[in-house]
Amino acid sequence: MTQEINTQAVADVLLAIREKSPLVHNITNYVVMNNTANALLAVGASPIMAHAQEEVREMVQISSSLVINIGTLSPAWIQAMEIAVDQAKKTKTPWVLDPVGYGASALRNQTVADLYKVCPPTILRGNASEIMGIAAQAGAIKGVDSTAASHEALEAARLLVNVWNNTISISGAVDQVASAGRFTQIHNGSALMTQVTGMGCTATAINGACLGVCDDTHLAAVSAMALMGVCGNMAAEKAQGPGSFQMYFLDALYQISPDDLEQRLKLEHHAL
Questions:
Q1: CB neighbour list of residue 55: distance below 8 Å, 6 or more residues apart
Q2: Residue 136 belongs to domain with CATH number
Q3: Which domain holds residue 31?
Q4: Is residue 74 annotated as involved in ligand binding?
Q5: Which residues contact 154 (CB under 8 A, 6 or more apart)?
Q6: 57 among annotated binding-site residues
Q7: Is 171 annotated in some ligand binding site?
Q8: Which positions are annotated as binding substrate (predicted)?
Q9: What is d(CA 157, CA 170) in angstroms, rounded to the nearest whole number?
Q10: What is the value of pTM for the model shown?
Protein backbone atom coordinates (compact mmCIF):
# COMPACT_ATOMS: atom_id res chain seq x y z
CA MET A 1 0.00 0.00 0.00
CA THR A 2 1.35 3.43 -1.00
CA GLN A 3 1.02 6.35 1.40
CA GLU A 4 2.37 9.83 1.83
CA ILE A 5 5.95 9.91 3.04
CA ASN A 6 6.35 12.46 5.83
CA THR A 7 7.61 12.77 9.38
CA GLN A 8 4.41 11.38 10.85
CA ALA A 9 4.53 8.33 8.60
CA VAL A 10 8.12 7.63 9.72
CA ALA A 11 7.10 8.07 13.35
CA ASP A 12 4.26 5.59 12.83
CA VAL A 13 6.73 3.01 11.52
CA LEU A 14 8.95 3.56 14.59
CA LEU A 15 5.99 3.11 16.94
CA ALA A 16 4.89 -0.02 15.07
CA ILE A 17 8.33 -1.56 15.55
CA ARG A 18 8.16 -0.89 19.28
CA GLU A 19 4.64 -2.26 19.51
CA LYS A 20 5.07 -5.38 17.37
CA SER A 21 8.78 -6.16 17.94
CA PRO A 22 9.20 -7.81 14.52
CA LEU A 23 11.50 -10.82 14.33
CA VAL A 24 14.28 -9.99 11.89
CA HIS A 25 16.28 -12.96 10.61
CA ASN A 26 19.84 -11.91 9.77
CA ILE A 27 22.39 -13.83 7.75
CA THR A 28 25.04 -11.19 8.09
CA ASN A 29 28.78 -10.86 8.37
CA TYR A 30 30.53 -11.79 11.57
CA VAL A 31 32.31 -8.42 11.83
CA VAL A 32 29.02 -6.70 12.65
CA MET A 33 26.74 -9.33 14.19
CA ASN A 34 26.91 -7.89 17.70
CA ASN A 35 26.47 -4.30 16.50
CA THR A 36 23.45 -5.03 14.33
CA ALA A 37 21.78 -7.26 16.91
CA ASN A 38 22.11 -4.55 19.54
CA ALA A 39 20.83 -1.90 17.12
CA LEU A 40 17.74 -3.98 16.36
CA LEU A 41 17.08 -4.51 20.06
CA ALA A 42 17.54 -0.79 20.77
CA VAL A 43 15.01 0.28 18.13
CA GLY A 44 12.50 -2.28 19.42
CA ALA A 45 12.88 -5.23 17.04
CA SER A 46 13.84 -8.82 17.83
CA PRO A 47 17.00 -10.04 16.07
CA ILE A 48 17.96 -13.58 15.27
CA MET A 49 21.36 -14.38 13.74
CA ALA A 50 21.06 -17.83 12.16
CA HIS A 51 23.06 -19.10 9.20
CA ALA A 52 23.09 -22.90 9.47
CA GLN A 53 21.61 -24.44 6.32
CA GLU A 54 19.69 -26.94 8.44
CA GLU A 55 17.59 -24.28 10.16
CA VAL A 56 17.29 -21.20 7.96
CA ARG A 57 14.02 -22.30 6.33
CA GLU A 58 12.39 -22.62 9.73
CA MET A 59 13.76 -19.26 10.81
CA VAL A 60 12.43 -17.49 7.73
CA GLN A 61 9.01 -19.08 8.27
CA ILE A 62 8.66 -17.47 11.70
CA SER A 63 10.29 -14.13 10.84
CA SER A 64 8.75 -10.83 9.81
CA SER A 65 11.63 -10.10 7.44
CA LEU A 66 14.96 -11.45 6.23
CA VAL A 67 18.26 -9.55 5.98
CA ILE A 68 21.11 -10.87 3.81
CA ASN A 69 24.56 -9.25 4.09
CA ILE A 70 27.45 -10.61 1.98
CA GLY A 71 30.26 -8.97 3.94
CA THR A 72 32.01 -12.19 4.94
CA LEU A 73 31.35 -15.07 2.57
CA SER A 74 32.01 -18.80 2.61
CA PRO A 75 30.47 -21.59 0.52
CA ALA A 76 28.31 -22.81 3.40
CA TRP A 77 27.02 -19.32 4.14
CA ILE A 78 26.24 -18.65 0.49
CA GLN A 79 24.18 -21.84 0.31
CA ALA A 80 22.35 -20.83 3.49
CA MET A 81 21.58 -17.43 1.95
CA GLU A 82 20.14 -19.05 -1.17
CA ILE A 83 18.01 -21.43 0.92
CA ALA A 84 16.74 -18.55 3.07
CA VAL A 85 15.86 -16.41 0.05
CA ASP A 86 14.08 -19.37 -1.56
CA GLN A 87 12.02 -19.78 1.59
CA ALA A 88 11.29 -16.04 1.67
CA LYS A 89 9.98 -16.36 -1.88
CA LYS A 90 7.71 -19.24 -0.86
CA THR A 91 6.37 -17.55 2.28
CA LYS A 92 6.30 -14.05 0.73
CA THR A 93 8.61 -12.83 3.49
CA PRO A 94 10.10 -9.44 2.53
CA TRP A 95 13.88 -9.36 2.42
CA VAL A 96 16.74 -6.88 2.27
CA LEU A 97 20.04 -7.39 0.46
CA ASP A 98 23.26 -5.58 1.41
CA PRO A 99 25.80 -6.27 -1.40
CA VAL A 100 28.85 -5.36 0.71
CA GLY A 101 31.91 -4.86 -1.47
CA TYR A 102 30.15 -5.68 -4.72
CA GLY A 103 32.73 -5.37 -7.49
CA ALA A 104 35.67 -6.22 -5.26
CA SER A 105 35.70 -9.92 -6.19
CA ALA A 106 34.12 -12.37 -8.59
CA LEU A 107 32.72 -14.31 -5.62
CA ARG A 108 30.75 -11.31 -4.34
CA ASN A 109 29.43 -10.50 -7.80
CA GLN A 110 28.36 -14.08 -8.44
CA THR A 111 26.72 -14.39 -5.02
CA VAL A 112 24.55 -11.34 -5.69
CA ALA A 113 23.66 -12.64 -9.16
CA ASP A 114 22.70 -16.04 -7.76
CA LEU A 115 20.54 -14.51 -5.03
CA TYR A 116 18.73 -12.40 -7.62
CA LYS A 117 18.04 -15.55 -9.64
CA VAL A 118 16.33 -17.09 -6.62
CA CYS A 119 14.27 -13.97 -5.85
CA PRO A 120 15.05 -10.25 -6.24
CA PRO A 121 15.27 -8.42 -2.89
CA THR A 122 12.39 -6.31 -1.67
CA ILE A 123 14.91 -3.62 -0.75
CA LEU A 124 18.45 -3.38 -2.12
CA ARG A 125 20.55 -1.22 0.24
CA GLY A 126 24.13 -0.28 -0.52
CA ASN A 127 26.55 2.53 -1.17
CA ALA A 128 26.72 4.28 -4.52
CA SER A 129 29.51 2.17 -5.99
CA GLU A 130 27.75 -1.08 -5.06
CA ILE A 131 24.47 0.05 -6.59
CA MET A 132 26.21 1.30 -9.73
CA GLY A 133 28.10 -1.95 -10.05
CA ILE A 134 24.98 -4.06 -9.79
CA ALA A 135 23.35 -1.93 -12.46
CA ALA A 136 26.42 -2.55 -14.68
CA GLN A 137 27.25 1.15 -14.67
CA ALA A 138 30.73 2.65 -14.36
CA GLY A 139 31.61 2.79 -10.69
CA ALA A 140 35.02 2.27 -9.06
CA ILE A 141 35.20 -0.01 -6.04
CA LYS A 142 37.93 0.47 -3.47
CA GLY A 143 37.76 -2.17 -0.78
CA VAL A 144 34.26 -2.12 0.67
CA ASP A 145 33.87 1.67 0.84
CA SER A 146 32.00 3.82 -1.65
CA THR A 147 34.11 5.87 -4.05
CA ALA A 148 31.08 7.46 -5.69
CA ALA A 149 28.62 9.93 -4.24
CA SER A 150 25.09 8.70 -3.62
CA HIS A 151 23.62 11.08 -6.20
CA GLU A 152 25.83 9.48 -8.91
CA ALA A 153 23.95 6.21 -8.44
CA LEU A 154 20.51 7.65 -9.16
CA GLU A 155 20.52 6.59 -12.81
CA ALA A 156 21.61 3.11 -11.75
CA ALA A 157 18.80 3.01 -9.19
CA ARG A 158 16.29 4.09 -11.84
CA LEU A 159 17.45 1.26 -14.09
CA LEU A 160 17.17 -1.32 -11.30
CA VAL A 161 13.71 -0.10 -10.34
CA ASN A 162 12.56 -0.40 -13.94
CA VAL A 163 13.92 -3.93 -14.24
CA TRP A 164 12.95 -5.39 -10.86
CA ASN A 165 10.26 -3.01 -9.54
CA ASN A 166 11.80 -3.05 -6.08
CA THR A 167 13.13 -0.34 -3.77
CA ILE A 168 16.73 0.89 -3.89
CA SER A 169 18.31 2.56 -0.84
CA ILE A 170 21.61 4.36 -1.41
CA SER A 171 23.75 5.44 1.54
CA GLY A 172 25.85 8.58 1.40
CA ALA A 173 26.23 12.09 2.76
CA VAL A 174 22.63 12.39 1.57
CA ASP A 175 20.76 9.08 1.73
CA GLN A 176 18.48 8.38 -1.21
CA VAL A 177 15.60 5.95 -1.70
CA ALA A 178 14.13 5.16 -5.11
CA SER A 179 11.17 3.04 -6.14
CA ALA A 180 8.56 3.09 -8.90
CA GLY A 181 7.65 6.75 -9.47
CA ARG A 182 9.13 7.89 -6.15
CA PHE A 183 12.47 9.30 -5.06
CA THR A 184 13.22 10.57 -1.54
CA GLN A 185 16.34 12.19 -0.11
CA ILE A 186 17.15 12.12 3.61
CA HIS A 187 19.38 15.05 4.65
CA ASN A 188 20.49 13.82 8.06
CA GLY A 189 23.42 11.91 9.54
CA SER A 190 26.95 12.68 10.69
CA ALA A 191 30.44 12.34 9.23
CA LEU A 192 31.33 10.27 12.30
CA MET A 193 29.18 7.49 10.91
CA THR A 194 31.85 6.82 8.29
CA GLN A 195 34.43 6.30 11.04
CA VAL A 196 32.60 3.37 12.65
CA THR A 197 32.71 -0.03 10.99
CA GLY A 198 29.40 -1.60 10.15
CA MET A 199 27.14 1.45 10.18
CA GLY A 200 25.92 0.55 6.69
CA CYS A 201 25.23 -2.98 7.90
CA THR A 202 23.29 -1.50 10.80
CA ALA A 203 21.26 0.53 8.31
CA THR A 204 20.44 -2.67 6.43
CA ALA A 205 19.27 -4.36 9.62
CA ILE A 206 17.07 -1.36 10.49
CA ASN A 207 15.60 -1.62 6.98
CA GLY A 208 14.66 -5.17 7.92
CA ALA A 209 12.94 -3.97 11.08
CA CYS A 210 10.94 -1.34 9.21
CA LEU A 211 10.05 -3.77 6.44
CA GLY A 212 8.77 -6.18 9.07
CA VAL A 213 5.98 -3.77 10.07
CA CYS A 214 5.37 -1.74 6.89
CA ASP A 215 3.87 -2.98 3.62
CA ASP A 216 4.93 0.18 1.76
CA THR A 217 8.53 -0.71 0.89
CA HIS A 218 9.45 2.86 -0.04
CA LEU A 219 8.22 4.14 3.31
CA ALA A 220 10.04 1.30 5.08
CA ALA A 221 13.34 2.18 3.41
CA VAL A 222 12.91 5.91 4.02
CA SER A 223 11.99 5.28 7.65
CA ALA A 224 15.10 3.17 8.20
CA MET A 225 17.44 5.77 6.75
CA ALA A 226 15.58 8.53 8.59
CA LEU A 227 16.07 6.74 11.90
CA MET A 228 19.75 6.17 11.10
CA GLY A 229 20.28 9.79 10.10
CA VAL A 230 18.47 11.43 12.98
CA CYS A 231 20.10 9.10 15.51
CA GLY A 232 23.43 9.95 13.91
CA ASN A 233 22.71 13.64 14.49
CA MET A 234 21.71 13.00 18.10
CA ALA A 235 24.79 10.87 18.81
CA ALA A 236 27.22 13.30 17.18
CA GLU A 237 26.10 16.10 19.50
CA LYS A 238 27.46 14.14 22.49
CA ALA A 239 30.28 12.06 21.03
CA GLN A 240 33.97 12.84 21.47
CA GLY A 241 34.98 10.50 18.65
CA PRO A 242 34.11 7.18 16.96
CA GLY A 243 34.22 5.16 20.19
CA SER A 244 31.74 7.24 22.13
CA PHE A 245 29.69 7.77 18.97
CA GLN A 246 28.86 4.05 18.88
CA MET A 247 27.59 4.20 22.44
CA TYR A 248 25.52 7.34 21.94
CA PHE A 249 24.13 6.07 18.64
CA LEU A 250 22.79 2.95 20.31
CA ASP A 251 21.26 5.10 23.05
CA ALA A 252 19.69 7.35 20.42
CA LEU A 253 18.04 4.38 18.71
CA TYR A 254 16.59 3.41 22.07
CA GLN A 255 15.47 6.94 23.01
CA ILE A 256 14.38 8.47 19.70
CA SER A 257 10.82 9.79 19.78
CA PRO A 258 8.31 11.15 17.27
CA ASP A 259 9.18 14.61 18.61
CA ASP A 260 12.84 14.06 17.74
CA LEU A 261 11.82 13.14 14.21
CA GLU A 262 9.53 16.17 13.97
CA GLN A 263 12.31 18.52 15.06
CA ARG A 264 15.20 17.02 13.12
CA LEU A 265 14.13 14.97 10.11
CA LYS A 266 14.81 16.57 6.72
CA LEU A 267 13.07 14.86 3.81
CA GLU A 268 12.97 15.92 0.19
CA HIS A 269 10.77 14.26 -2.43
CA HIS A 270 11.03 14.09 -6.21
CA ALA A 271 9.55 12.10 -9.05
CA LEU A 272 11.86 9.31 -10.20
A1: none
A2: 3.40.1190.20
A3: 7-270
A4: no
A5: 170, 176, 178, 183
A6: no
A7: yes
A8: 49, 198
A9: 8
A10: 0.93
